[in-house]
Amino acid sequence: MHDLSDGVARFQREVFPAKAELFARLAGAHRPAALFIGCSDARVVPELITQSEPGELFVVRTAGNLVPAHAPEPDGVTASIEYAVSVLGVTAIVVCGHSGCGAMTALAEGADLGSTGSVARWLRHADASVARTAETGPDRLPALIRENVRVQLAHLATHPAVARALAAGTLALHGWVYDIPSGGVTDVGRPAEGTLLPVRPF
Hints:
Elements: H1 4-18, H2 20-26, E1 34-39, H3 46-50, E2 57-62, H4 76-87, E3 92-98, H5 102-108, H6 117-122, H7 127-131, H8 140-156, H9 160-168, E4 172-178, E5 185-187, E6 195-196
Parallel strand pairs: 1-2, 1-3, 3-4
Antiparallel strand pairs: 4-5, 5-6
Helix pairs in contact: 4-9
């Protein structure tokens, strides 16, 4: 396993000095352009995929890149979305799924989650994704991953801060799927879409 303390030492010795001017600016300013909602999977690194510098992305990571629909009771995901839109003023939000997602695999295969009650309850935020995925066999998992991104975008739009920004035309939503073995990123934001992204869209 990568030694984390060695990594910190290398950052301080090699990486930080090369970006000292950037970090000096960031010390007094936090104005990310986009909110990136991705999966907690360690293989999915938003800054690496988008080649973003520190300070450019406000990142929320959840199991299955799930976004609870807005509810009266606050939670960490809701608070982060509201802060990103209302306080930081991000102009884009990306919901990014990925190939081989463990959460979607469990749902596609009907895995027994009885011993992981919190996981099972969390994955209920993907109930509509499962219901809307008609494919069977080997096509089911990729289809579910795509449909789940679309469903989470719909959940995102129920948040008042997001709805207001969308109505004002100051915010754009994007749905992506990242393919781990190829490095490809596909736009699946709406059912009619499904094009490979040649460049960052914001």
